[in-house]
């Protein structure tokens, strides 16, 4: 192949992510320098955090993607040409290659994936989602056996792992998701103790019914009405981990939050976090998540789109909640 | 004296605290049992927490005052009769005696005040306000020299101590209060670096101007519009300590809070607390506060009401913000 395609960010979204934000460009394949290697990407991850990377907001945890640059993404790739002995031809690697068919790297930030691990499991469980779930739940919320966890965005890539790790730790687990099909999957396949369909259930009644001993940990991925209901049902000394607010990322005027009186009355703690602050713990977290995975305690499903260009429209599935499992693109 | 007066809670407030919530009753003085002693109260503290003690809400950190019981309060008293060798006649003591001229105690929860400490300094600095300020600021927010602190309710009993302790710790300190007179007091007398009058200033502009390096710690005593402004100006990894929400205690429908997106983006932590959870640390905190007081670093002022019955109307000064310093009743 003497040329390859990549997708560049050319306009920042205001509310929804429109196709006009992106431009597909063709590149000539250039010769490698010493120490470099070339990869052909096979799987590319689509994640809610991308909405933040596309905006010009400089307060976020990593700088925005510059206009004109290849859109940022993590992915799995195969080394197809190499002048770097640590990354031989044929190796399977993971890294932030972006929305592109090919990339050249000197190895910085690139990890070799052990043979036998399917790319889909790596992106769905061992990569950012699993480390985020483990860091937020185990290191920040510090769950205790017998406690009750409520997790929003429960059928999402992070939420589904949070709930399953919590079950493995002996918690009573209730998830919030956006369809009866997702709710059934949480309870019947993943072993959640209960699930709330925020689009059709009376959220306040259903949460109160399913968390009869109150909520000790609320793992927040979405925002929206569930936030107030969670606060109302929190136990004294409850912990709230704020990992995402996907319901509000695409709105121009973010919705109001709960009043803070219960924070004093119940002495709640609320902690925002993003995994990149804790990358020093990545090896330890990955080991923890791997052990759950090998013990058969973590199920996952992937929603696979086909071909580079499918990312452009496909990313919006994350914000409409239409994706069925970890969203990724097969190239 | 063969009888004494006390004020009993007979009705729970819905919004404002009305005089009809209380009833003054006369009691006959009864003989002491072995181990008991009788006190004549000289000073009684009025505190925002009383609004919570009067409501039937069982989620609060201590049970509500039962209807018919003497209204709860801490105070300073003199032992006037004793069958307990640890509390001899003439001793000055501090305890939760309630809204009453006299009380009988077996010594539980009662502390002897060392000679030479004025009752007003004890109630205004060393009692609940000082321990609350020290616990919230030093133990929870963990300030570092050079950081910026914003404190709401800054002219209040807790807020004024939070700001002064923070100054002693080398922070840049900005307070929010409800009159120009209070703001002048904060800056000219207490040494705050700046003050915002939330009733007349453009809060957003003034806070941004006075906290040009952003806010590292927000100590929340009030709620209201300042909450959103604080969130908007917080630095990454900022800490918010929620000690009170006095602006909302008397409203039937509490106001909405800020959206949670900045909590993720800036990885903020928000921690609600009440001092009674930390009474095990009281001796250590009291020692810390005493050392600041003895070093001349803590100024205070008291707003003194005269006579037991003055508490009934006087408690509302706390919620209108009309009190000028620590509110107490001299009996």
UniProtKB/TrEMBL annotation, chains A, B:
Pfam families, per database record: ADH_N_2, ADH_zinc_N
PANTHER family, sorted: PROSTAGLANDIN REDUCTASE, PROSTAGLANDIN REDUCTASE 1
Origin species: Agarivorans albus MKT 106
Gene3D superfamilies named among the record's database cross-references: Medium-chain alcohol dehydrogenases, catalytic domain (3.90.180.10), NAD(P)-binding Rossmann-like Domain (3.40.50.720)
Keyword Metal-binding: no
Enzyme class at the top of the EC tree: oxidoreductase
Lineage summary: Bacteria, Pseudomonadati, Pseudomonadota, Gammaproteobacteria, Alteromonadales
GO molecular function per UniProt: oxidoreductase activity, acting on the CH-CH group of donors, NAD or NADP as acceptor; quinone reductase (NADPH) activity
Segments forming domain Enoyl reductase (ER): 15-329
Keyword Transmembrane: no
Listed name of the protein: Quinone oxidoreductase
InterPro entries the record matches: ADH-like_C, ADH_N_2, ER, GroES-like_sf, MDR_fam, NAD(P)-bd_dom_sf
Keywords: Oxidoreductase
Enzyme nomenclature, EC number: 1.6.5.5
């Amino acid at each position: 192949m003497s040329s390859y395609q990549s997708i560049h960010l050319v306009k920042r979204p205001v509310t929804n992510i429109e196709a006009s934000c992106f431009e597909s460009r063709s590149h000539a394949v250039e010769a490698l320098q010493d120490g470099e290697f070339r990869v052909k990407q096979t799987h590319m991850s689509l994640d809610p955090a991308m909405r933040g990377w596309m905006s010009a907001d400089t307060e976020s945890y990593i700088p925005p993607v510059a206009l004109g640059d290849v859109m940022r993404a993590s992915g799995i790739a195969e080394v197809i040409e190499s002048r770097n002995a640590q990354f031989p031809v044929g190796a399977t690697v993971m890294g932030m290659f972006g929305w592109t068919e090919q990339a050249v790297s000197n190895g910085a930030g690139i990890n070799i994936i052990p043979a036998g691990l399917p790319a889909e499991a790596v992106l769905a469980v061992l990569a950012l989602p699993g480390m985020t779930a483990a860091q937020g739940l185990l290191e920040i919320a510090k769950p205790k056996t017998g406690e009750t966890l409520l997790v929003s965005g429960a059928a999402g890539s992070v939420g589904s792992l949070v709930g399953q790790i919590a079950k493995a730790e002996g918690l009573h687990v209730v998830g919030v998701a956006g369809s009866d099909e997702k709710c059934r999957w949480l309870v019947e396949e993943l072993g959640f103790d209960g699930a709330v369909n925020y689009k059709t259930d009376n959220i306040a009644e259903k949460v109160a019914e399913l968390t009869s001993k109150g909520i000790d940990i609320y793992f927040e991925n979405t925002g929206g009405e569930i936030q107030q209901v969670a606060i109302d049902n929190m136990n004294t000394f409850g912990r709230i981990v704020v990992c995402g607010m996907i319901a509000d990322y695409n709105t121009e005027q973010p919705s109001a939050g709960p009043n803070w009186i219960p924070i004093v009355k119940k002495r709640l703690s609320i902690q925002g976090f993003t995994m990149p602050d804790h990358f020093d713990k990545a090896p330890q977290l990955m080991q923890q998540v791997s052990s759950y995975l090998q013990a058969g305690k973590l199920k996952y499903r992937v929603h696979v789109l086909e071909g580079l260009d499918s990312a452009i429209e496909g990313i919006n599935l994350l914000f409409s909640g239409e994706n069925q499992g970890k969203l990724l693109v097969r190239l």
